[in-house]
Design brief:
- It comes from Trinickia terrae.
- Keywords: Signal.
- This is Spore coat protein U domain-containing protein.
- By secondary structure, the protein is an alpha+beta fold.
- The protein has two domains: about 30 residues; about 150 residues.
- Helices cover about 25% and strands about 55% of the residues.
- The chain is built from three helices and eight strands, in the order αβββαββββαβ.
- An eight-stranded antiparallel barrel has the order 1-2-3-4-5-6-7-8.
- The longest helix has 30 residues.
- It is elongated and about 50 Å long.
Length: about 180
């Protein structure tokens, strides 16, 4: 009889443990449902200057995002981007958009790699780039993200004029980052 009772007790313990683990797994899934909204400023520099002539350019993208409103992860109040790369570029390439990658460094020391496709439009006389994609590595991996950059340092008309002339050495403006919670 005692063996039967201890077997029953072991079964109860196993059953309760299973429910607890399943419950914790559900809680972990809900806790990982993170959303991020950040605003800030972004600057892009080109060396040599960006013109209508296709050429290899050293491009630096720097962004500072603060404040950041984050659910599901503590310790994040801001983020930054400082990406440098060499690319064969012309003004039409920038306006045409295309694929890219950038790394967000969060104020808690973690990072997120954002793989995106850029589209560029004219809105209110400004050049507006929208980067749409996914976090491919790091914090928030697998979540969809969107970055919108409005180049207010130069109007679209001045951008096109400068591209036809001596070129553009830098552009800047406000930026918004949104990382959507997982579905």
């Amino acid at each position: 009889m005692r063996i039967f009772e201890s077997g029953r007790s072991a079964f109860k313990t196993l059953l309760v443990s299973s429910f607890l683990l399943l419950g914790l797994a559900g809680f972990a899934t809900q806790a990982s449902a993170q959303a991020v909204v950040c605003s800030g400023t972004e600057t892009g520099t080109f060396n040599p200057p960006l013109t209508n002539t296709q050429q290899n350019l050293q491009i630096t993208v720097s962004a500072s995002y603060s404040p950041c409103l984050v659910t599901g992860v503590s310790g994040i109040t801001s983020a930054s981007v400082n990406n440098q790369f060499v690319r064969d570029y012309a003004c039409q390439t920038l306006l045409g958009g295309g694929p890219g990658t950038r790394v967000f460094i969060w104020s808690n020391g973690q990072s997120s790699t954002f793989s995106y496709t850029a589209t560029t439009n004219s809105v209110g006389g400004n050049v507006v780039s929208t980067l749409t994609g996914n976090i491919s590595a790091g914090l928030f991996q697998g979540q969809s993200a969107v970055v919108v950059v409005t180049l207010t340092s130069i109007s679209q008309a001045d951008f096109l004029t400068a591209c036809a002339g001596s070129g553009i050495t830098s552009v800047s403006g406000p930026t918004e980052l949104t990382i959507l919670p997982p579905l």
